[in-house]
Write a structure and sequence with these properties.
The chain is an alpha/beta fold and 454 residues long. 28% of the residues lie in helices and 23% in strands. Strands 1, 2, 3, 4, 5, 6 and 16 form a seven-stranded mixed beta sheet that branches. A five-stranded antiparallel beta sheet has the order 17-18-21-20-19, with helices on both faces. Helix 2 packs antiparallel against helix 3. It is globular and about 70 Å long. It starts with a strand and ends with a helix.
Length: 454
Amino acid sequence: MRHFDLVIIGTGSGNSIVDKRFADWNVAIVEKGTFGGTCLNVGCIPTKMFVHTADLAAVPANAAKFGVDAELTGVRWTDVRDRIFGRIDPIANSGREYRTSHPDNENVTVYTGQSRFVGPKTLDTGTGETITADRFVLAAGSRPITPDVPGLNEIDFHTSDTVMRLEELPRTMIILGGGFVAAELAHVFSSFGVDVTVIARSGALLRHEDADVSARFTELASQRWDVRLNRLAVRAERTGDGVTLHLDNGETVAAQELLVATGRRPNTDLLNLAATGVELDDDGYVIVDEHQKSTVDGVYSLGDMSSHHQLKHVANHEARVVQHNLLHPDEPIAADHRFVPHAVFSSPQIASVGLTEEQARDVPHVVSTQDYAGIAYGWAMEDTTGFAKLIADPSTGLLLGAHIIGPQASTLIQPVIQAMSFGLDARTMARGQYWIHPAMPELIENALLNLPLG
């Protein structure tokens, strides 16, 4: 039985840990699927490439009010799809080739298989070989949740893992779910001309966002898609050339394709972690301390296996922490999860960091809101629906949260993240620097000035 200094399970952010500083380590990397992890292959990267294309496809419909007559004459789905994966697939392949063939990785052994622990720090690699190691990094990511809907497993349906590789663009699509995956892919397919129906179990889309943002997004989404709120799917069946969902209120919805976008779950259940003593929380995530160490000495975890955020930038941060702590066990550093931002790349975009107004109810706070329509560039764009909301401590002026819905939200929020991370108060942030006029960041400037700090 081969013994290693380090075994990394998963080739997403975990794959970035091993660099030249590990040249004298005996390392194994285990991957059950495609190199590169969720973000590269089925998540952030391809979805945003589709979103960018969808944004282009949506322009003609909004151009007439500006005096520009434009028309969308068609979307060449296979060209769109093949351009995107024609760029992504070679990256995944080259990542595998680098680890298996490059001279830099003579100390690295790659196993391709579904691994599982069979004893303390003892791993069946899924290739017929069982290995042991002093240290493990659990970084095997997550996968889409399949809800318990009778008949669902008997029909062909898609998840975010498969829907972007459809053979042809359907005329109609049902999207089951009301979170960020549903919101982004509904934007993509509706912009390409697909008639989209969104079915959500709650009373609003993106219900984990600030309530005002969620309400505004739900309002705008309902103008673009057939949105069914407070609905549960109780049965699924294949009918003709499509799928029919039966809902709990007696309604039925039929479409050519069904996309299930009801969330993701960590892949911890695939690894038999109990055999090596690693403890999980009630949601199935690996329990880790501030140094990303699990409950077993020498076993670390990062990314979607241990983080409820399920965000690539969080996984990358945690990978850097684990890397340092592996190399410098006597001088460990802690992961910083204080101000974790996220964005939803739908239309309109949404970005958020820190507390929502609802979460801030138990602490002293003040709130300000600035509409896009109230700044020069937003006025030029005739944006009447977007806004930024800031939440701050009234005594210190320190920002507690920020929430933006509108164009370029994911970019506009960055200076707020910076201010929160480095302790910059709202007044100093607003008055202590120039803000380009008439640029979009004036949205944040005005929101800062609107805070009633006394």
